[in-house]
Amino acid sequence: MLLTIDIGNSNIVIVIYDSQKKRIYDARYVTLKDDPAKNYETWINENLVPLKAVYQIDDFILSSVVPSVTQIFFQLTQKLLGLDGLNCGLEHVREFVVKLKNPEELGADFMATSYGAMTHTTCPVIIADMGSATKISALDANGAFAGGIIMPGLKVSQDALNAFIPHLPHIPMEVPESVLGSDTITAMQAGMMYSNIEAIRGISNRIEAEFKMKCGRILTGGLSNLVHQALPEFDFEPYLLNDGLFEIYHLNRS
Questions:
Q1: At 10, is the pLDDT very low, low, confident or very high (cuts 50, 70, 90)?
Q2: Residues 6, 109, 140, 243: which is the catalytic one?
Q3: Residue ranges per domain, the chain?
Q4: What are 147's strand-pairing partners?
Q5: 8 Å CB contact between 217 and 139
Q6: What is the full DSSP assignment across 190-205?
Q7: In sequence order, what DSSP letters do the residues of 117-171 get, joined into one string?
């Protein structure tokens, strides 16, 4: 059994896979950023140590985009689970071509979603990952990482509206039936939700225009469940990053 751990700015997602890549267990938690050494020792003992015994976990792999947490969490998990583990980095995907000015800038989340995407569809492929930030990346026809965009995500947009225009109501993140709001709440919902939906669609169209070919499209990330029905041209793969971690782990341990 393999434990995959995805640490994002808002949430930690864990998925346990068997050797055939079947998901055996999954859970989502809030990312803790204060006093990580103290808080994560308790958190791992309460949440991960019991899972090791129940599911007979053999090893783990970690992807983290929170620098203040990454190394502390990885070392604590090694210690408390008694496993070597892998902390996903570019050194674990050396054959992966990254067409960035500085390939070292590519985050572990982009690497993992790329490997997850390549197991779900053929290249070229566009990946829209909706978390604290909405990230859209693309693999070209040869499977190389061609680049991407990072923009404020739904929660960031919601928080910004409340911070800068405090007299506006706090609204639930739901896609309204009409793009034209009929009151303050539906107007805010339409602006927040459809701006992300149409940005994802429009940027994907622009990527296809640059590639001069049609691309597969995948939607993932913690907030993608809110909008995937409004983006039917995208395959909805909520565990894409963890699926990619499974692939990267076996690439290095085989």
A1: confident
A2: 109
A3: 2-87, 99-238
A4: 138
A5: no
A6: HHHHHHHHHHHHHHHH
A7: HHHHSPSSEEEEEESSEEEEEEE-TTS-EEEEEEEE-HHHHHHHHHHHSTTSPP-
Query: First-to-last CA distance in the chain?
Result: 15
Contact partners, residue 22, CB within 8 Å, separation at least 6: none
Structure confidence by residue, pLDDT tens digits, 176-215: 989 998 898 899 899 999 999 999 999 999 999 999 999 9
Say whether 99-238 and 2-87 share the same fold: yes
Phi, psi of 18 (to 5 degrees): -90, 180
Helix or strand run (H / E) with residue 41? helix 36-47
For residue 71 the two structure tokens come to 């190394």
Q: Residue 75 is which amino acid? A: Q
Joined together, the tokens standing for residue 215 give 């691309």
Give 154-180 pLDDT, tens digit per residue: 888 888 887 788 888 888 888 998 999
User: In which band, very low, low, confident or very high, does the pLDDT at 125 lie, cut at 50, 70 and 90?
Assistant: very high
Architecture, CATH, for domain 99-238 = 2-Layer Sandwich (3.30)
d(CA 28, CA 157): 22
**For 2-87, which CATH class?**
alpha beta
pTM beyond 0.85: the answer is: yes
Q: What is the pLDDT of residues 46-100, one digit of tens each?
A: 999 999 999 999 999 999 999 999 999 999 999 999 999 999 999 999 899 999 9
Active site residue 35: no
Instruction: Record the tokens describing residue 32, joined without a space.
Output: 């803790």
For the record, the structure tokens of 60 come out as: 């783990």
